[in-house]
Amino acid sequence: MTNKQKLIVLIQTSVQLPCYSGEAVLIWISVNDIHLFTSLIGHGYFCEGDIDVTLMGDYICFDGKDLLEFMEIEESEIDITR
Questions:
Q1: Are 26 and 62 in contact (CB under 8 A)?
Q2: How many angstroms separate the Cα of 35 from the Cα of each of 12, 20, 21, 23, 41?
């Protein structure tokens, strides 16, 4: 399984399914999965900058639109609620 496929599974099985909020694609990741999440994305992504997140207890929430583009994941490849 590729990192792209693993990331899709992680996003799909996280705290909540991704959803649209205006132009943003909100993605939730459990704090228990942050190490896995960052290892799947790779160091190069974070060299370009950081990800602004909202810490919500035991998970983070962020706009994943740029991340999906970076990982070459089409929005149609993940289940995004409206």
A1: yes
A2: 17, 25, 26, 27, 10
Asked if 15 and 60 count as a contact pair (C-beta separation under 8 A), the reply is: no
Instruction: End-to-end CA distance of the chain: give it in Å, rounded.
Output: 28
Q: Structure pTM?
A: 0.84
CA-CA distance, 5 to 63, in Å (whole number)?
19
Q: Residue 60's beta-bridge partner residues?
A: 29, 55
Mean pLDDT by 10 residues, the chain (82 residues): 93 86 91 93 82 90 92 89 70
SS3 for the chain, per residue? Answer: CCHHHHHHHHHHCCCCCCEEECCEEEEEEEHHHHHHHHHHHCHHHHHCCCCCCEECCCEEEEECHHHHHHCCCCHHHCCCEC
Residue pair 46/20 in contact by the 8 Å Cβ criterion: no
